Amino acid sequence: xxxxxxxxxxxxxxxxxYAAHGVLGYLLSGFGVILPELRQDLGLxxxxxxxxxxxxxxxxxxxxxxxxxxxxxxGAQAMRCAIGTQIGGALLLASGWGRIAGxxxxxLFGLGLAIMVNFAPARLRDExxxxxxxxxxxxxxxxxxxxxLAPLVLGASLSAGKGWHIAFVAPPLxxxxxxxxRSMPAAGPQQPPETPPERTTRAPSxxxxxxxxxxxxxxxxxxxxxxxxxxxxxxRKLAAGTATSMVALFVSGMAxxxxxSSFVLRHVPRPGHVLAASAALAIFGYxxxxxxxxxxxxxxxxxxxGLGVALLYPLTLGAVMASWPDNPNxxxxxxxxxxxxxxxxxxxxxxxxxxxxxxxxxxLLTPLILVAFLIRCIVREVKTPAxxxxxxx
Length: 393
Hints:
Blueprint: H1 12-33, H2 35-42, H3 46-49, H4 51-74, H5 78-93, H6 99-128, H7 132-147, H8 149-159, H9 165-181, H10 207-234, H11 240-259, H12 261-267, H13 271-291, H14 295-309, H15 312-323, H16 328-356, H17 359-362, H18 365-383, H19 385-390
Helix pairs in contact: 1-5, 1-6, 1-7, 1-8, 1-9, 1-10, 4-6, 4-16, 5-6, 5-9, 6-7, 6-16, 7-11, 7-15, 8-11, 10-11, 10-15, 10-16, 10-18, 11-14, 13-14, 13-18, 15-16
């Protein structure tokens, strides 16, 4: 298939998944931008505060290893469990009860997010078949759109001297209540109970390289999200509230790109071309952000970087799901495992390099990962163009 054809039907189940992604997006973006404040509150080094994202990532890894079985056990309660665990983790993070409580909160938040990123792609794949990449891109686009609010709200609260705790937990808590109270509707298409589809337990050929793509692109996304505010404070001498608010431009770029994903994916014949062009755009934007010491240039560069990063995760996840069509739960679980590995390692490595040398040098890890991914895209496009054309079908 050269293009994605057909209309996407957004029923109640899909709309609720989208809304849940909105809650997730705010919390995730907020978690990223509060790291400098956590570091100051608890008197931690950068490598130490990066252990909070690592605890968060541990939840993704745990669910990624057994997510398909967990989803079967949770059944219709999966989304409620995901949202409730995320909110509980956020409350612990904001409680101010010390390092252990904060670490436990990060772990719970990661568990909740992992359940969601296992549940949602598999459910969307069941409901929308070959249009699932569009639905996944729209869901992550809405998550990115809501994530724009977190840096703005938290930045305003910090600038007003009100701290970050209430601004971090109150908006998603209010938004999550209706989703927790109401049950999830039954899935749309149903398989006949007497002839369940055979589900393979062994990953298909080429799956590991597609899985590695997720590791690379998620490493980029979260390295920028977790460290951009710190870089703006330390390297560009901006106030905490201003630096935190400016991260909204990065997630605004991601939101814009993901919300435009339907148009892009319908009109670009090869998804591989979209991935390569997006990676190149992200490298260009990040180079300006890293090199030019000017607030306006940094702001524009963050937006361009976000725009470039926008479609990398939806497309790589869509390719992973499409490569294992008869076992979407297992594919989604392995996608969560890839995200967990990326979030657990990349920000921690960046923080360790920053402590050993300086933050400016540590921030070079991100474009190196982008260059590696761009090379991977070019090589794949040259060697296996047919695989690229069908990755989203």
